[in-house]
Amino acid sequence: MDVRLKRVRDLSSAELAAWRAFRIAPGPGGAVGGYASPFFDPEFTFAVDRVRDDVFVAVVTEDGQVRALLPHHRRPLGFIRPIGAPLSDWQGPIMAPGYAFNLEAVLDGMGAGAIRLGGAADPHGQLARWTLSKAQAYVADLRQGVEHYFQWQEENWDHHVKNLRRRERKA
Q1: Strand 94-95 relative to strand 65-74: parallel, antiparallel, unpaired?
Q2: What is the C-alpha to C-alpha distance for residues 171 and 164, in angstroms, rounded to an integer?
Q3: What's the predicted TM-score (pTM) here?
Q4: In whole angstroms, what is the distance from residue 72 CA to residue 78 CA?
Q5: Is 122 helix (H, G, I), strand (E, B) or coil?
Q6: CA distance 71 to 81
Q7: What's phi and psi for 74, nearest 5 deg?
Q8: What is the DSSP string of 34-98?
Q9: Which helix (H) or strand (E) element contains residue 114?
Q10: Distance, C-alpha 48 to centroid of its chain
């Protein structure tokens, strides 16, 4: 395994293509969308890079192939923060399906001592070994449009929706 630190603007077209391919690759059971959040899009990292000077991407390769990328902020004392933290809700490495990701080895290869992932996406189940705690997160699935989402909310949370409407009328 080889870990190289690069500025996002210095990534090759092949590295960017791998990043985009990993985002849409199916996870276990064929589920797609583990990296669907816009926080995992290279364009988000490019946008952060335009306003911050501490943006880097760890590019993990094996046998000449990109296997994972970890966009992050370099902080003092070997600490790294996820890209866009603390404002990014989802964060972590973007991995190739089936790749046996070793966070400890990647951090060592980066010369980093620690990372805190407050909302780590792990569609391939590779981060469990380093997980201290888990919490349920709620996501609004808007792929079928906002109206469909609100209809689903009304059908499944009728009492809650009625209370929200009542409060809205009062306001």
Answers
A1: antiparallel
A2: 11
A3: 0.78
A4: 12
A5: coil
A6: 9
A7: -85, 125
A8: TT-SGGGSHHHHHHHHHH-S-EEEEEEEETTEEEEEEEEEE-GGGEEEETTTTT-SSBS-EE-TT
A9: strand 114-115
A10: 14
